[in-house]
Amino acid sequence: MAADGSVERIGQWAGDVMGMASFGNTIYFSGHPAPDGNLPPNIGVYELSVQSGEFAPISLIGEVDFHSMTIAQSPDGMALAGIDSATGQVMVSRDGAETWTTGVSIGARSLSWDSNAERLYATTERGLLISTDDGMTFTAADGAPLLVLIASSPADVSTEAFLVGTDVDGYVYTSPDGVTWTSIGLAPPLSDALAVGSDGSIVVAGIEGLHRSEDRGATWAVIAEF
Questions:
Q1: Dist. CA 145–CA 37, nearest whole Å
Q2: Closest CA to 184 of 197, 196, 198, 202
Q3: How far is residue 6's CA from residue 78's CA, in Å, rounded to a whole number?
Q4: What is the DSSP letter of 187?
């Protein structure tokens, strides 16, 4: 998406993308191939260059279809996590998606690292869960709202780092630490994806388009219509 709100296609991938996360000028995605594609039903993890539009498989080809992915910069490099749609297990890579460790099955809807990839948050029907060991174990985030979507500000955010989530009724919540949550507004209807920009703005995507909030969810502006 350009600064003026216009949307431009990147590359020629034509499959069904179910999970996606971006890091610098690279987009990592997972899902299913186009009906006429000569690929296994689950494509594993691919990378797409924002600059060139070229894409290529990295790992887990034919093995997984991630329905939620999250990425963050850790002290040791890039940390990527996803939810295996077939098993519900959380999988984590800390070496550029080359190798993966498999954690517990929690049936999560959405995943997000904190800004330093030290804590992994997962939204579930039981409530918000937190892992500090790359998804091997999770504990309940007591007092957190029943969130559906969750995202974290990136490491280079110009404001103080924070988490943001939307609950089952569409309310937007923010938290500086994953413990204390505050809500001051509603997300646009039918929002299915959530992200935080480097300027601290909150962006949601849904069937109607993209919306951005610069006041933690109190008001929203349309930045692209689908």
A1: 41
A2: 202
A3: 29
A4: P
Closest among 183, 175, 181, 185 to 143, alpha carbons compared: 181
Residue 69: count of CB within 10 angstroms of its CB: 24
The DSSP letter of residue 157 is -
Backbone phi and psi for residue 177, each to the nearest 5 degrees, phi listed first: -145, 5
- The model carries a pTM of 0.93
Residue 116's identity, in one-letter code, is N
Helix (H, G, I), strand (E, B) or coil at 135: coil
Checking if the pLDDT of 156 tops 70, the result is: yes
Question: How far, in Å, CA of 207 to CA of 16, rounded?
Answer: 15
pLDDT digits (tens, 9 = 90+) for 83-139: 999 999 999 999 999 999 999 999 899 999 998 899 999 999 999 999 999 999 999
The string of DSSP letters for 29-77 reads EEEE--TT-SS-SS--EEEEETTT--EEEEE-TTT--EEEEEEEEETTE
Residue with tokens 């490491």: 155
Whether residue 148 contacts residue 168, with contact meaning beta carbons closer than 8 Å, is answered with yes
Q: How far apart are CA 81 and CA 91, in angstroms?
A: 6
Place of tokens 């992915």: 69
pLDDT in tens, 162-220: 999 999 999 999 999 999 999 989 999 999 999 998 889 999 999 888 999 999 999 99
Tokens of 95: 């070496």
